[in-house]
Every structure is written in C-alpha cells, then in structure tokens.
Amino acid sequence: MISRRTLTLLALAASLSAPLTWAQDKFIVLASTTSTEQSGLFKHLLPAFTKTSGIEVRVVAVGTGQALDMGRRGDADALFVHDQPAEEKFVAEGFGIERRPVMYNDFVLIGPKSDPAKVRGNDIAAALKHLSGTKADFISRGDKSGTHSAELRQWKIAGIDLASAKPAGYKECGCGMGQALNIASSTNAYVLSDRGTWLNFKNRGDLAILVEGDKRLFNQYGVIVVNPAKFAHVKKDLAQKFADWVVSRDGQETIASYKIGGEQLFFPNANQ
Fold first, then answer.
1. How much is the pTM?
2. What range does the record give for the signal peptide (predicted)?
3. 173 assigned to some structural domain
4. What is the model's pLDDT at position 205?
C-alpha cells in the first residue's frame, strides 16, 4: 500500500512539473529570411518580445522561399519574410491567416571600390544592363530567397533574360546573404544585398556600395501567422501575440531603435 507521505510527495512533484512543462511549451517557431538574423535585428528585437510576453521565439533563418515552404508544411507557427507577391499568394492559398506589413529598408548593389564594370550611380536597371556587357563576376544567391526574387526582378526590368543567356560572370551560390557577401569579398565580385546585412557584415574586403537610392530597390518585410485550419498543431494564439507585438507601438519602436554605427537599419511602417 502506498503511504500517505508518498502520495503527498507524488502530488507535490506533479504540481511542480505541470508549470515547468507549460513553460517549456511556451515558444513558437519563426521561419524567417536570413537578413533579419544576419543583420543582427533579431538579437535586438526578440529578447524584448520575450521579456514582455514570456514567449520564446525559436528562429529558423532560411531564404524567404524556403520559409514559405516551411509554412506550407506546417513546420513553423509564423513567418517573417520579404517577398510580398509570394507572401500574398501564400495567404490566398489558405496557408496564412493574414499578411501584415512590419518594416522596410532597401537593397543595394555592392561591388569593388574601383568599380571595374563602371556601374556606380542610382539606377539599378542601367547598372545591371551595363554589367551584363562585361566579364565582371556577379554573385547571385540563387536560393529562391526574397533577395534572389528581387534580384531576378531587377534583371528583368533591365531587359536581361537570364533564362536564355546569363552574363559571362553570373554565378549562383545557392546560399544565404552572408555567404554570398563573403564570396563577393574574396573574389571582388558584384552582389545585390539588403542594406541591413551589409551594414552588419564584417568581412568587406575591397567592397563598397555602388548603387543605391533607386525606388525600385525598396524592400518590404511582412509577418504572417500560419493557418491552424491547415495544421492543428500550429500555436496560433502565441504566434498571433508575436505578430500583434511587432506591429504595435512597442514593437515598432524597438525595430526603429536598432542601429549600427548610428545608422538605422530598418524603418517600421506597420501603420502606413
């Protein structure tokens, strides 16, 4: 027969373990573009959210295309990405509840300071068209990320059909933004980058920003909660708290306060 003392100890153990199990479950999986992590934003943003909510955010940083695929498989609770047409399609297909704008920055064309291809300026289409006529190396992420999708749009605007004839120096790495920048740095190549990752990039070598300020380089980020109607295990309530917070005044102010060398990396625009 189990003694009263043993029953008391078992009850106490159960009461102590229940909150611990609950606490361990109070997290979400966030599939996100690499730029939000490699720019250093998440190290600044997510602790502030966790402090406010008690919810841990476990980030899987991949290209936006892969992040959306994770959402389609139910492998994430929320997405933080930057390819608006693809995001809107994701929601239209029923995989996401709603897409909400969060913040923006811009893309920049990086290349050797000496600019051997002579592309420096503020017209990205003209720069890529001129670059295509040279043998200069261009590193494409080639990973279906938001940055890769933006790059492909810019080549198309420039009148360059990559499907039929890639420029002589065009190389696809199938890699994240940080790795693409490292390759460009080691080979003195050109590369399209989001400004945030570039500002946080330490291994610049002889690289510099050569093209910036073109309105076509605008880079919008959005947040999406994965639809629990598709996947019952999605932590919709916790994910919604995260989505609501990043577009709230506190979340937006936290995003705006992230700077490197006094320069703001992302500009909140949830309410615009």
1. 0.86
2. 1-23
3. yes
4. 96
